[in-house]
Amino acid sequence: MAETTLGTIAETGRETRSLEQPRTVEASQDYLAEIVGSETLAGQRVQAGPILKLMYDTAVAVAFRHCGMRPVMLRLDRIDLTRVISHMDLVRIEGRMVELGRSSMVIELRCYAKRPRERQFNPCHVGFITMVALDDKGHPARRIPDLSYDTPQGRVSKALAAHRRAEIEERKGALAWIDEENNLRVEDVAEPISAERYDYLRPEHTEVRVKGQVISSSPQPDGRVRAGDLLMWLDRVATYTARQFCRNENVITLSLNDVVFRRPLHATDRIELVSRVTYVRTHTLEVAVDIIVHTLEGEQVQMDRVEFFLINFAPSGEKQRITTGLVLSNDDEESLRMYLKARTRFNFWKAHPESHLTQLPE
């Protein structure tokens, strides 16, 4: 099934709803907790991939608890991973339902971490994942329990859902004008950077390509790829691309942007990830990863593009200046457009420090 159909069914209308009694936010909430990483790397920063996978797994648990059907991921809202999580930290992800579509479920995920020497959990970050319930035939279900907001947590979730929708529209609006711009020029797009560069690369020379299958430790019954495994692979490729560009192994993900998975992936698909550096600042850079699906029938489909924002660290743990720069050209309008979007995103988030949604606005 094409993901456009999946998304349309999931997000529009509520014409058919289960005859069951509505479920409260409290009844569907759940959590997962795990000691992350490797003991041999204890104390070092853990990559984003395992955290993203644990967030996905928590969303699956909450969605299944609410509807009793197998869920798949449709959308991942932007997530900021600004608090350090280290190998052998205990990470706890708490999930709760905040909004329903016809067959879709928006789940708020709050991450907490505790180091071995600490007594209490510390809040890390907040994210939202939209899941879609599937029926026995693998189609989006039209009969899932409704959500009751008539409890203390329910009222908070209702307000949070409205706040999230408004922020998504604001993010879309901040970027919408760029696709309408024609004849972009380097002098209009590039920003002056005071950092000294020792060498420069064109965007196409930063490209990294990998191709293979997403191997899951627990495959889905119908052969679909679990989105959590794909997220780990995406983060690994983005991190490798950034490390190659910076010539430094101490680069980690700070955030990834909104992404909608437009079609399901199957175990028989060959997945090609094509990544490149699109934007560079003094200590940070953005890497875009395109997901290209090669089906068993020989079809090639460009599925999605996921943008990661990463930071360059010295071995001591301090921020380290990036000494490689990007060379833009007026002949490469696609790179200019990607650079301008990345620059606009950076300035948007700089102006919205509350974007992690740790609390509702006053």
Give the topology, please.
Layout: H1 3-11, E1 23-24, H2 25-28, E2 30-35, H3 48-67, E3 70-76, E4 79-80, E5 90-100, E6 104-114, E7 122-134, E8 147-148, H4 152-176, H5 186-189, E9 199-201, E10 208-212, H6 227-246, E11 251-256, E12 259-260, E13 270-280, E14 284-294, E15 300-312, E16 324-326, H7 333-350
Parallel strand pairs: 1-8, 9-16
Antiparallel strand pairs: 2-5, 3-7, 3-12, 4-11, 5-6, 6-7, 10-13, 11-15, 13-14, 14-15
Commentary on this structure:
The protein has seven helices and 16 strands. The protein has 362 residues and is α+β, with helices and mostly antiparallel strands. The protein folds into two domains: 3-170, Roll (Thiol Ester Dehydrase, Chain A), CATH 3.10.129; 184-350, Hotdog Thioesterase (Thiol Ester Dehydrase, Chain A). The strands form four sheets. The chain has a six-stranded antiparallel β-sheet, sandwiched between helices. A six-stranded antiparallel β-sheet has the order 4-11-15-14-13-10. Strand 13 and strand 14 (284-294) form a beta hairpin. The longest helix is centred in the middle third of the chain and has 25 residues, at 152-176. The radius of gyration is 21 Å and the shape is globular.
- Major β-sheet profile: 6 strands, antiparallel
Element-by-element helix/strand order: HEHEHEEEEEEHHEEHEEEEEEH
Structural category: alpha+beta
Give Rg in angstroms.
21 Å
Large-scale geometry = globular
Number of strands: 16
Could you say how many structural domains there are in total?
A: 2
Strand content: 25-35%
CATH class of the largest domain: Alpha Beta
